[in-house]
Design goal:
The structure is a homodimer. Chain A has helices at about 1-15, 15-25, 40-55, 125-145, 165-175, 175-180, 220-225, 230-240, 265-270, 275-280, 295-300, 340-355, 380-395, 410-415, 440-460, and strands spanning about 60, 70-75, 80-90, 110, 115-120, 150-155, 180-185, 195-200, 205-215, 220, 305-315, 325, 325-335, 360-370, 375, 400-405, 420-425, 440. By secondary structure, the first copy, chain A, is of the alpha+beta class. Chain A folds into 2 domains: about 1-200 and about 375-460, Aminopeptidase (3-Layer(aba) Sandwich); about 205-260 and about 305-370, Alpha-Beta Plaits (2-Layer Sandwich), CATH 3.30.70. In chain A, strands 1, 2, 3, 6, 7, 8, 15, 16 and 17 form a 9-stranded mixed beta sheet that branches. In chain A, β4 (about 110) and β5 form a beta hairpin. In chain A, α1 packs antiparallel against α15 (about 440-460), α2 (about 15-25) packs across α4 and α13 (about 380-395) crosses α15. The radius of gyration of chain A is 23 Å and the shape is globular. The relative contact order of chain A is 0.19. The mean pLDDT of chain A is about 95. The interface between A and B is large, with 97 and 98 residues. β11 (about 305-315) of chain A pairs antiparallel with β11 (about 305-315) of chain B, so a sheet runs across the interface.
C-alpha cells in the first residue's frame, strides 16, 4: 500500500503539469465527423503517441481509411493480468459557435456552480479529459515505482463521434495484439459529483440521415404552391408519424426484443433518490416527454428512443424566401435496448419512409451507424475489485448503473475480442457534452486519475 | 405610327448595348434580405439613378430605414396621361451556390432549350431584366423623338424580396409625388413564350418564421433522449398538422373569405389547353399535391396555400451528432385569395402553434409580411389598350390571367395612391426565379422593350 500512497501523492503533486498536458491535447481541433479537420485528428493521435512514449510505452499511430488509431503497450508486470484501456481522442463539432462563452479549443479553468473548478472546452469531458485520467495514473505509477502494476495495452480511437467506421475491421486485424483479460473503458459518468459509478448496461444506436426528393429543382411557391409537392411537408409528416400520441414509436416490430424491466431493478432504481423535477428543471423543462406511464429514469436507462437530431431544407438564412425546395433532410437516431436488432430497425425505418412517400417523390438514406445494446456481467470479478477501489477513493459505494448513451466499442470487444469491459468514468450530468460550453470538473480529472491508480492496483 | 416604328427599330438596333447595360446592373449583388449586402443594394439604386439621368429623367435615390427607393420623373408630354412605372432592383439570395452552373452575379448569354438565347444570372427575370425593358423603351423613345409620349414617373424598390418593410410609409410620404393615372408593374410573366399576358388577379402573402424553444441548452440524446422534449419533434408535429389528409389547411377560419370559382371562369380556364401533366412533368413530378378534387390551375390561380419554405434545427453539418437541440425553426407562408384577412391568418397560425405546445415549451414568431389578395378591374380602359399593343407586338391576343404569386405593391397602390395597376411582364414559367440558374430569355428582354414602346403609345 505504500507504493499506492506514493502514486496518489504524485498525482496530487503533479496536478498542474497534468492539466497543462490535457490543455495541449484539448487545443487540437480533432472533430472527426468533418473532413476539414482530418489533419487535426492526425495531430491529436501523434500527440498521444509522443506522450505515451514519454511514459515508457511502445506506441504507434496506425493508419485506417479514416482517422488513425493509437495503439500503445507497456507489458512489464510479470504474472499480472493484461488490461486494454479504451478512450477516444476525437470530439464533436462545435456549432453553434455563437453559444460558446469561450472559444471551444482554447481550454481554461473557470469557477463554476458552487465554486467548483471546471475545465471548459470541447472534448474536456468527452473524451480527452477522461482518457487522460488513465494516462496520468500510468505516469504516476511509472514515476514512483518504475513500472505499472498491470500489463497495459492502450487503444485510442479517432472516430467515436462519427460512427466508428474503421473500428470493426481494425479490431479484427489487430485481434491478437489487443487481446487482454478485461477492457477498461473511460467514456461514462459518475452518479453525481460525490458518488462514483460503474456502468453495467448500454443502449445501442442506429443513426440514419434521410433526404426526401420532390421536384428536380427549387420552385417559386407563388407559381407552384399546393400544386407541386413540398418535400419539407412530406418530411415533417413522416417524422411526425414516428411516434404516436402516447409517445410510443410506431415502426412495426420496433419493440421486439425490448425486455420488461424486472421488479427488482425497478425497486432498486426507485430507491435512488432520483428527482424527475430536478433532472428536468436543471435544463429548463418540467414535463417528461416520451412514453406515457413510464418514469424518466426508466426511459433514459431502459427504454428505446427515437430522436430527430437535425433537420434542414429550403431557405434557412436571414429573412424570407418563398421557395419550395427540391429536397429536405433529417438526421434521425434510435437508441436500442435488450435484444432489439439494429439491422431490423434500419429496415423498418426505411420501409416506413418509403411507404409514406407520394409516388413521385424519392427518399435516400445515409447510414450513420447501427449497433445493438449491451448488458455487462454483474458477476465479473473485475467489477467487484473496481467497485472497492472506487469506494476507497470517493468514500461511498459505486452505483452500478444502466446508461442511456451508447458505446458501441463495448459490443465489439465482446463479439470480436471475446472480452468483457469495465466502464468507469468521471463525467457529470451537467458536463454539456456535445453542446456549447462543454466542461469537465477539475475534481473529475484529479480524482479520476487517483481512481484509476487504485483500480490498477486492485486488478493487479 | 412612323415615330413608333422608328422607336421599335431603335430598340432592335441597340439590343447589344441594352444588354450590356442590363449586365452592369445584374453584376451588382443587391440581395435585400441579407444585411451583408446593404451596400450592394445602395449601389444598384445609384446605378439606376445615373442611368435614368442619362435618358433625361430627373432621378434620385431616396433613403429609407431599409434600402433606398429610386424615384425618377420625365413629365414633358403636355396633355398626355401620367403613368407610374414600378419594378424592384433587389434580388433573392443565391444559396445553394453549388447548384449554379455559372456564378449568379456574372451574367452571360447561353443557348437554352430549343436554341433560344437566355440571359442567365440572379435577377435576370426577377426583376432587373424586366424593369430594364421599360427603361430601354423610354430610352428609344427619347433617342428617336426627343421626348416620351407619356408623363412617366418611375419607382424602383429595393426591398421587394424581403417583405417591403419601408414601402407603406414611403408611399404615404410621397403620395402626391407618385400620383398618376395608372401604375404599370413589370414583375409578372407571359402565358407561354409566344403568348403575352396581362395579370388581373394576385394572391396575398403571409410569411411567418416560427421557433420552438424547449430545454435551455442543447442536450445529449443518450442522456436525455425521450425524457426531455425535442423541439424538432414538436415542430414537425405542428407543421404536419397544418394540412389534413385531403390537403386542406386546418387553421380554424382559414377559408373565410375564399370565393367559390365562378362557372364562367372555370370554363374559360378549362379552355386554356393547360396540361397538368406537362406543368408537373417539366419539374420532374407527376402527382398534384394540395387539395384533393381541385385542378392544378385552380390551385395555383384561385386557391389559398400553405407552404413550409424553410426548416432547420439541431445538427445539420456533415456526419452525425446525437444532439437534442434547444430550439428548432421553420419559415411558413400562406398565399391568400379573395377576402381572406391576412391579420386573421397570422392570428390563427400563432394560436394553433401555441395551443399545440407542451406546457414547458415556448414559441416565438418573426413576421415576414402580411398582405391580402388583389382583384383588378377587367374593364379598365388601360387594360384594353395594353392588350391591343401586346397583340400587335406578339401577333396573338394577350391572355388575361390570374397569378399565383403575390405583388403586394399593387394593393398598396390601390389603397394608398387610389390607383389601379396594369400588370404586364415577360417572364416565363421556366425562368427559375428564386432558384439557382435563374434566366430571362433574350426574346423576353428584346420584345419586352418593344411591347412597352407600343403600350406607351397606346396609352398616350
Amino acid at each position: 500500500m505504500s507504493s499506492l500512497q506514493n502514486v496518489l501523492d504524485r498525482i496530487d503533486h503533479d496536478l498542474e503539469p497534468a492539466t497543462d498536458r490535457l490543455f495541449d491535447l484539448l487545443r487540437i481541433e480533432s472533430i472527426s465527423t468533418d473532413p476539414a479537420y482530418r489533419k487535426h485528428c492526425a495531430d491529436a493521435a501523434a500527440w498521444l503517441v509522443r506522450d505515451l512514449k514519454s511514459i515508457g510505452f511502445s506506441a504507434k499511430s496506425v493508419k485506417t481509411p479514416g482517422h488513425p488509431m493509437v495503439v500503445a503497450k507497456h507489458h512489464k508486470a510479470k504474472g499480472a493480468p493484461t488490461v486494454l484501456f479504451y478512450g477516444h481522442y476525437d470530439v464533436q463539432p462545435v456549432d453553434p459557435l455563437s453559444l460558446w462563452d469561450n472559444p471551444p479549443f482554447e481550454p481554461k479553468i473557470i469557477k463554476g456552480k458552487g465554486g467548483a473548478k471546471q475545465i471548459i472546452g470541447r472534448g474536456t469531458a468527452d473524451d480527452k479529459g477522461q482518457l487522460m485520467t488513465f494516462v496520468e495514473a500510468c505516469r504516476a505509477w511509472k514515476t514512483e515505482t518504475g513500472n505499472l502494476p498491470l500489463n497495459v495495452t492502450i487503444l485510442f480511437e479517432g472516430e467515436e463521434e462519427s460512427g466508428s467506421p474503421s473500428l470493426i475491421p481494425f479490431l479484427k486485424d489487430y485481434k491478437n495484439e489487443l487481446k487482454a483479460d478485461v477492457a477498461l473503458v473511460c467514456d461514462t459518468g459518475m452518479w453525481d459529483e460525490k458518488t462514483p459509478s460503474i456502468t453495467t448496461a448500454l443502449r445501442g444506436l442506429v443513426g440514419e440521415e434521410v433526404t426526401i426528393h420532390a421536384a428536380d429543382r427549387d420552385l417559386h411557391s407563388g407559381m407552384y404552391g399546393s400544386a407541386a409537392r413540398n418535400p419539407i411537408h412530406v418530411l415533417v409528416e413522416i417524422l411526425a408519424g414516428l411516434r404516436d400520441t402516447n409517445g410510443k414509436i410506431t415502426l412495426p416490430g420496433f419493440y421486439d426484443g425490448v425486455p420488461a424491466l424486472p421488479k427488482s431493478i425497478k425497486k432498486q432504481w426507485s430507491e435512488l433518490k432520483f428527482s424527475e423535477k430536478s433532472f428536468l428543471g436543471e435544463i429548463g423543462l418540467k414535463i417528461p416527454a416520451g412514453e406515457k406511464g413510464r418514469s424518466v429514469l426508466e426511459m433514459i436507462w431502459s427504454r428505446p428512443t427515437c430522436e430527430i437530431n437535425g433537420i434542414y431544407g429550403g431557405y434557412t438564412g436571414e429573412g424570407f424566401k418563398t421557395v419550395i425546395p427540391a429536397e429536405a433532410s433529417a438526421k434521425v437516431s434510435f437508441r436500442l435496448v435488450g435484444q432489439q436488432n439494429p439491422k431490423k430497425v434500419v429496415s423498418a425505418f426505411r420501409k416506413y419512409v418509403k411507404e409514406s412517400l407520394p409516388a413521385d417523390c424519392k427518399a435516400s438514406f445515409t447510414p450513420e451507424g447501427a449497433s445493438g445494446a449491451i448488458q455487462l456481467d454483474y458477476r465479473m470479478p473485475e467489477l467487484q475489485k473496481a467497485a472497492g477501489a472506487l469506494k476507497s477513493e470517493w468514500g461511498r459505494p459505486a452505483v452500478l448503473a444502466a446508461m442511456g448513451g451508447s458505446i458501441p466499442v463495448v459490443g465489439h470487444f465482446q463479439s470480436i475480442l471475446k472480452m468483457q469491459s469495465l466502464l468507469v468514468g468521471f463525467g457529470l450530468d451537467d458536463d454539456r457534452i456535445h453542446s456549447p460550453n462543454e466542461k469537465y470538473n477539475l475534481t473529475s480529472f484529479h480524482k479520476g486519475a487517483r481512481s484509476w491508480a487504485r483500480i490498477m492496483e486492485a486488478l493487479a
